[in-house]
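Practice set, problem 2.
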Amino acid sequence: MTDIERTEFNVQDTSFPSANDRFGQAGRDVDARAQFEELDAESNLRPKSLDEFIGQPKVRKQLDLVLAGAKGRKVAPDHILLSGPPGLGKTTMAMIIAQEMGTSLRMTSGPALIRAGDLAAMLSNLLEGDILFIDEIHRIARPVEEMLYMAMEDFRIDVIVGKGPGATSIPLEIPPFTLVGATTRSGMLTGPLRDRFGFTAQMEFYEVEDLTKVVTRAAGILGVEISADAAVEIASRSRGTPRIANRLLRRVRDFADVHAGGVIDLGAARAALIVFDVDESGLDRLDRAVLTTLIKGHGGGPVGVNSLALAVGEEPSTIEEVCEPYLVRAGMIARTSRGRVATLSAWQHLGLQAPPGTLGS
């Protein structure tokens, strides 16, 4: 089986629980039937239609028009690019597109498409109207991208047979399909590739109100009793991201099963989030370590990312890609030409008195 074949999944088989969810807590008896029931519940957390999808009202409205128009004309929709930070529902939206169009979904990722032959093998297996979803599409190899141009525009590819002077090009027709690309870094897409998408959707971070609905819906699917204020508490610490909200809900559920009789109230939610090192602003241990190093170790900055990474024992890429996006969005860190600078909000979050002239004061 090739790498490409291993990355293709049925729409119903693309949501996998974490290892903690599969095996339960150490030292506790695990009921196999209960575990299978939990797996089914976890796979159902993803919404199955645009009507079930919570949040992103502008994207949902625009996408509904695109899909409705295509269905009315009985043609494949234009190629769709979904852009935005991780965890906002890009993969789920691709699954919904396939469900709404009543077609199959083929899934792969940019890093898995190394050679042009990898893409050719996948395209040759598509049926008319199929949805091809490429996650992290900005990371596909250059030869693959060049083959994708012709496939997107003309629904054909040229397959090279042989080597050297005797090599020949054989045109291969492809049934009309829809490419759905997802990217967390739209700026890294080349202009020719970006221009070939007929519709581009920018996914935005969620408000607490929408995340509360996400938590409440997920709790109902998981069969967990949760109070309204507990749902708000979890949502407010989820960094505007549904994936984090669902993850925190599952961890709070673990705490409630052990210490609160399976019921999540405000007290249980707060106690559980303390255990899992998530504070009132959604910052975790690494976020606070970065702020502490920046403020207590360097007086608030400016500090280079390499120095911060060395002090907290992480790679610079981890600081830039995991911590900084939220800290900058929360207004606790500013990125300047001289390095990272802590703002007044960061000092206040750590309960420290900011010196005069602090950014944001």
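Problem 2, part (b): a different protein.
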Amino acid sequence: MSLDSKVEVKPAPVKQRRRFDRRWAGLALLLAAAVYAPFQLVPFHVFQLTMVLVYAVALLGLNLLVGHAGQISLGHGAFFAVGAYAAAILMDGWALPYPLTLPIAAAVAFVLGYALGVPAMRLRGLYLALVTLAIAIFLGPLLKRFEGVTGGSMGLTLPKPAPPAWSGLAEDQWLYFLTLAVAVASFLLVAALLRSRVGRALHAVRDNETAAEVMGVRLSFYKTLAFAWSAMLAGAAGCVYTWVIGFVSPDSFTVNLSITLLAGLVVGGLGSLAGPVLGALFVQFVPGIAQDVNDAAPGVIFGLLIIAVMYVAPTGLAGLAGRLIRKIPRKE
């Protein structure tokens, strides 16, 4: 190899550092905008952004299972409901302070996800999807049967977390910043996880299970953990949902929620950290748009919008945004 050819390969790490710096700069700008937004918006719009963050955390967990581990789940709304009800019961029946409900709700969802993940990992594809769908179907009637604990069909009404006097924030702003803190912590946790050996093992399982097993990856172990981590994040999102809404009932966690979450993730983009955020925007706003377009058949409009997005962006909105950014000419 000549000296000239050796010199030519040296700028590559510099380009990687530039891309890394641009990414962190973009994330810092996005976080600054997120902190600034609630001071410029009316309370209803602050509430909408808060719900976007709640759904983003739930979709982050689903993305870990579907996008990074290559498993399928149609029952993610059930783990969301478990976290919501765990927080509600702890606050209503045990009078536990709301900050303590978050780790407990996440732990309960983690244990349940792990317990259900062990038998579910014997299945794959449509069979696994059917089992997870069954979980979402029977959870609602199960919650209604334990009326003394869950409130039955009437649900539970809870006080929302009040902002401390030193904050100077309104209730909607305080709830927004609580949710933002949980969302940022969740994304940092998943980003660190995906950069570790565990993340590489999950990607190996997703890409080729046979090759991963030959390389020494324990399939059942990592699949089950992915299921549990996914449930944990959904439980955390459900807990924050209880803080924000102040009410839980079985009718809030139907099968449609699980299907909508999966559709939102696919639309946002599988296997991307930006996908859950874009998917959460889709889940929060598109059903309302569909309702405004046609009150008689919002589901039809919602389905057509999903088809249209998938036609324009087969890899999701995150993939479309990535392609558009790469087309922008840059100065070397």
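Answer key, part (b): Residues 219-245 form the longest helix (27 residues). Strands lie at 156-157, 247-248.
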